[in-house]
Amino acid sequence: MKRYLIITGDDFGFSWERNEGVMEAFNKGAITSASLLLNCTGTEEGAAMFKSSQLCPGLHLNLTEGSPVGEFEYETLVSTEEVFRGKFALRKHLDLGEINPVEIKRELDSQIKKFIELVGRAPVYVDGHQHIHLHPKVVELFAAALKQHNIHITRFPVEINMAAKEWVNPEYMPFFLAMIEKAHVAKKVLDDYGIKTTDSFVGLSTMGRDMTPERLQKIILEAFEDAERRLSSDKRGFTTCELMTHPGYPTHRILGGFSWGSDDFGCSEDRIHEINVLSSPEMKDFYKQNNIELVSHSILLS
């Protein structure tokens, strides 16, 4: 069975340094798609790069960091500083039913329309910054917005055997496992709205310094083999997997990123490390030896 691997560069548009790294990775054949943030210092430059290259354009829907795109007076979606509430705080307020769904709907629509305005076309796919698109209070609004705009592809960030990945920082694991559990529940909503995903997914366990050729090869093979077992009777003759990555160069602490600048991961050398691993001869040989073809999200349009 043919194996198609989509390699996505997340956080495109975060800063000019991030954009430079994403485009370097793409030009080296190390990634195939990129997900654009719309409320960052490098957003407009990233949008222009989509228009001047063959990089597959995706939207990195963001409800957790920086300022909203929608020109509305939000009362629940933002803090008193008029910025999104953050990765964990937003989820807490959503769980408590304290976020007005009308505000979420308006921001979803605003971000899709802003992407079309900047790039000149709709995104081929939309995924969620920090996977917020699959929260139980967001996913149906998200799926409906995609369907309304004739977008049919998103991310299903379920990496198998996560708990067994002993190299992952134990501080991250509770969030990953909780998010995966919510993603499984959200899948039915995506299916009901006709939103497609890849057959498998990897990348949670290999962000930054946690990425090595050996680990990437292990998790990619696991993902494809698992998908092939589940889909052995599928008449397509191929399976798909998405690898989530974060290539880039260190962003200036103050001058790039969201309204307050960049975080530690954005300022670190870890994203250069990802470029080097993804473009290494070891990975290119691995793809050839294991019948893996690198493709973009456009493969899911057929």
UniProtKB/TrEMBL annotation:
State a single Pfam family of this protein: YdjC
The cross-references to Gene3D superfamilies, in alphabetical order and at most eight, read: Glycoside hydrolase/deacetylase (3.20.20.370)
Task: Give the InterPro entries listed for this entry.
Answer: Glyco_hydro/deAcase_b/a-brl, YdjC-like
Q: What GO annotations for molecular function exist for this entry?
A: deacetylase activity; hydrolase activity; metal ion binding
Its Gene Ontology biological processes? carbohydrate metabolic process
Q: Does the keyword Metal-binding apply?
A: yes
**Record keywords, A-Z:** Carbohydrate metabolism, Hydrolase, Magnesium, Metal-binding
Q: Which cofactor does it need?
A: Mg(2+)
> What does this protein do, in the record's words?
Probably catalyzes the deacetylation of acetylated carbohydrates an important step in the degradation of oligosaccharides.
Family from the record: Belongs to the YdjC deacetylase family.
Name of the featured protein:
Carbohydrate deacetylase
Instruction: Please name the source species.
Output: Biomphalaria glabrata
